[in-house]
Amino acid sequence: MSTVIAVTNQKGGVGKTTTAINVAYYLAKSGHTTLLIDFDPQGNATSGLGVDKQSLSVTMADVVMGTHALSDAILATEHKNLSLAPSTPTLANTEVELAQAEHRFTRLKLAIERLAQEYEYIIIDSPPSLSLLTVNGLIAARYVLLPVQAEFYALEGLGQLLETMKLIRKNLNPTIDLIGVLPTMVDSRTSLSTQVLAEISKHFPAKVFKTNIPRNVRLAEAPSHGAPIGVYDRWSKGARAYKAVTKEVIERVG
Ligand code: ATP
Ligand code: MG
């Protein structure tokens, strides 16, 4: 069975997509067959891997609407062991249509269950909201990976996410678990970053990854080259951090 990990935080711009792309890349690079599901209408994980959104015939919107199987949407990437299920802004319309539909919470879970090809890891990139799409991701996932930006408002709103996870655990997905909290865009030279890191550790004892992700301009540049950081600049600080955190993910999955 695949290990499904949803990268989730309803706050925008905290590093979800950067984390999803680069953890998926390093999982694949270390020999694990990996599928990255772009489940955000912004389609940032799709363009971040260099896929032209105009060129797509089948996307996650079709999968969610039930007109195509997930396997129809999946594209091979130029990176060994890494496949992508892409999204475009159409997914936002789909979400509206889905609001009244049957099985609206379990569309993604069912689509993954029907996959004939077996992936060792499936990484889901979620949108910045606690929307129906995010809930679909949480119901499909065994684990939640929570990136938290090292800034003053970092912990605000997380209570709501944890509450949603609790409800989902009780009703729809009893095995959902937090695999880890990943501090992102950390600037160790500032006392604010250090303070926020301490705060995050206090809130999530034992859940914070040993590795945190530094603020690194190479990580911000890589998507415009359509490349994971491990290809764009494998020796950068950002690359080394994502490689290390992927190792921790593998250890935690066990
Ligand atoms: P959204 O909520 O809109 O989906 P997100 O949580 O997926 O956003 P990203 O898109 O990964 O966040 O990151 C937001 C911006 O910050 C992007 O421009 C990205 O390139 C940049 N960024 C992410 N991580 C880092 C980092 N460690 N150092 C520098 N820039 C970063
Ligand atoms: Mg994103």
Shape: globular
Q: Which molecules are bound besides the chains?
A: adenosine-5'-triphosphate, magnesium ion
Mean pLDDT, nearest integer? 95
Question: SSE order in H/E notation?
Answer: EHEHHHEEHHEHEHEHHHH
Helix content: 40-55%
Number of helices: 12
Largest sheet: 7 strands, mixed
Side by side, the strands of the main sheet go: 3-4-2-5-1-6-7
Structural class comes to alpha/beta
Poorly predicted spans: none
Distance between the termini: 14 Å
> What would you call the quaternary organization?
single chain
In short:
The chain has 254 residues and is an alpha/beta fold. The protein has twelve helices and seven strands.
Topology:
Layout: E1 3-7, H1 16-29, E2 34-38, H2 44-48, H3 60-65, H4 70-73, E3 75-76, E4 82-85, H5 90-98, H6 107-113, E5 121-125, H7 132-140, E6 143-149, H8 158-171, E7 177-184, H9 191-203, H10 217-221, H11 229-232, H12 237-253
Parallel strand pairs: 1-5, 1-6, 2-4, 2-5, 6-7
Antiparallel strand pairs: 3-4
Helix pairs in contact: 1-12, 6-7
Magnesium ion binds at residues 16-17, 40, 42, 44, 125.
Q: What do these coordinates show?
A:
The chain has 254 residues and is α/β, with parallel strands linked by helices. Helix content is 42%, strand content 14%. The chain has twelve helices and seven strands. The protein has helices spanning 16-29, 44-48, 60-65, 70-73, 90-98, 107-113, 132-140, 158-171, 191-203, 217-221, 229-232, 237-253; strands spanning 3-7, 34-38, 75-76, 82-85, 121-125, 143-149, 177-184. A seven-stranded mixed sheet has the order 3-4-2-5-1-6-7, sandwiched between helices. The longest helix has 17 residues, at 237-253. The chain is globular. Magnesium ion binds at residues 16-17, 40, 42, 44, 125.
